[in-house]
């Protein structure tokens, strides 16, 4: 203890007076072409974030063409009526901009980030891409080949392989959610420029799209700028697409995806639960955080900090798709990797953590710390324009009001320990979890079967 | 006693300023005010990284970093995490070749707590460090190694290329994660000795950035850190300097169960902090940054021989930096086809230099990356520490982007000509083998190669 004596010790300091902060309220409007615009001025944020949402969900993809939404999203940055693919990429990078586009169950999202000084030029390029994409045969063919080349890399990634298997297990075979978001080798190979253009013409138009612009807009005349750029995009009117209901089979069972020789087992344990439209959401967020939100949550306290089985295991809720009428769903899951010899013991401990939670509930102290963290980190989490734009776009995509996030923080603060416990226990019932393990079946099958957490099947490696 | 000077904003600093101070025990302090959001970032860089490790103890700096979160004199168990997160803050630590950093981003009214916590472990870690934490975190770090390197395809490429690019015995020959055998061999006494040697106020820089009152902040820093005794006797790391060029092509072929053939290479480049390093950064950006680069256009768009192709720069101050080439082949394309195209493009670039438009694009890309890094209080705090620790002057962080914009096309061409040559690189070639043929004693697997050189605790 001599080490202690050398410095002056002071008691732990108390917090000062909190300075007010609130999640920003966006301005909302509509351009003449029907495009919905959300804007938010964030002083000091010199890199502006622009998010575009297109009502082109994966369930709109024609049968046998899974992946066409992804190829279309990528093809937006492969040339327009003014620029070849190479020129378009060069012009964007000349702005110091990044442009990412991806397709997911709710629709296609395009994210642009650019220093505010070059926003006009970058918005012009973005508008060209949406208004008059080239979809040249050669470029689409290249994107298709590139996508086919990516698939083996994804299958070789334990985390992505697990995600693919869980989707297949949870959702009925005729549901788009059961199949890979970016398509399979068979479906991607069937995509050509005509298919991409047909998908674009059917589902992409300003009337069902939204753009979110966030950043330091002090010297920006955004109305004029949007009018000159995205305002020139035209399209026929259309009603939003109906959202199909989500069904899932969460009968407790185990699927091992065999990866001979793997030194770790990738875990993905999940089911489907309510989305943000459900009143339970704030309590579910709180309860899930207490279960596995961080290194000091229940799962890591045992699996990492006591046993050393893992670098970290997390529990989370991720919205899959929402509907205005509240029929949407989220994926509730626990994920992480544990070393191969300790796979059985780690799963046994994980189930013990879940059972203990169901039997004894959360403590008030756990609930308090979780609320303080989830609410307290908001100003940090939303420091950048990109973070604010991402959440505003999520709200639109999930049919939530613009003040949803601000309201959520108040609801979290008002959620008690009993509600959080009930939500966590309902989210992760021990007998209604589908467990996917990507690992060495020869070593882990017997110990996992002995746990009694469900029937075990083994999928041999591709 | 603290002594400081107030800086006025320099040209090219985007209006940001920082002041510098030094406590009597040698702790250097950098403060930067920004009242736009009620948050404050605390960042503490210790001038110790994996380059300070000795033979047989690779990975010790990083393992030790984990131990810094296991409690200290007045903080029990996981208290560092619990208290910061309970205050609405976020935190972590990372270890690289050259330094170890610890950081907390806090709601501004909780700043004092973060300072108290950092001071407590700087001054009294050994009061809490025990065998139980050591054994537990050893297992955690070994699982970190498995998860991030051993169990992913191409996961050990960084380690293999680094070992090729820096000769045996060089302080950067091994990476921060260390070897399993050395992680197993580390003892509690090693950890204690490591702390006593390197964790001193006069071997650290503390930066605080955000919605702060500088006078009050400095008073807290004096209160909590001021009585921690400084001490000397830290051994200098082994000399990392090497000749400008390797002088031959070093090469290793890896036969593993990976999804596709790959060509990776590390080129020896100038040290960070030099104008030549900035020029190299621009050259690599023109050649392999983003989707309008020469290599992307050639390999992915035109030849269609690659799934992905790009260059990255690993900036190092105490040894030559590395220019990092990563190409994954498409379909059945063989590596020599890729290699010939890469060499042709590099030779052409050395001959022609960048066009004016390419310079504009590369500078715009690097400028945005800097705006991103300086756009958060945590990013700014980290950069201020970086320039203070590695280059002795935190103010350089605020003008770094300006220096990149001043580099000329001629300088970019010159560095490409001198350094981006086949006789100045280490090459790693991946040839896939089928699972059955591979005796999977230590299974190597999959995915995207990483140029990750930092090991976070969390």
From TrEMBL, chain A:
Chain positions covered by the region annotation Disordered: 1-21
Gene3D superfamilies in the record: Metalloenzyme, LuxS/M16 peptidase-like (3.30.830.10)
SUPFAM superfamilies (alphabetical): LuxS/MPP-like metallohydrolase
Residue span(s) of domain Peptidase M16 C-terminal: 191-374
GO MF, one annotated term: metal ion binding
Boundaries of every Peptidase M16 N-terminal domain copy: 38-155
Designated name of the protein: Peptidase M16
The organism of origin for this protein: Streptomyces ruber
TrEMBL record, chain B:
Peptidase M16 N-terminal domain segment(s): 28-167
Pfam family, one: Peptidase_M16
UniProt entry keywords in alphabetical sequence: Hydrolase, Metalloprotease, Protease, Zinc
Spans annotated as Disordered: 434-458
Stretches assigned to the Peptidase M16 C-terminal domain: 186-366
Biased composition (Acidic residues): 449-458
Protein name: Pitrilysin family protein
Domain of life: Bacteria
Species this chain originates from: Streptomyces roseiscleroticus
Keyword set includes Protease: yes
Database matches in InterPro entries: Metalloenz_LuxS/M16, Pept_M16_N, Peptidase_M16, Peptidase_M16_C
Coiled-coil region list: none
Family affiliation: Belongs to the peptidase M16 family.
Alphabetized Gene3D superfamilies for the sequence: Metalloenzyme, LuxS/M16 peptidase-like (3.30.830.10)
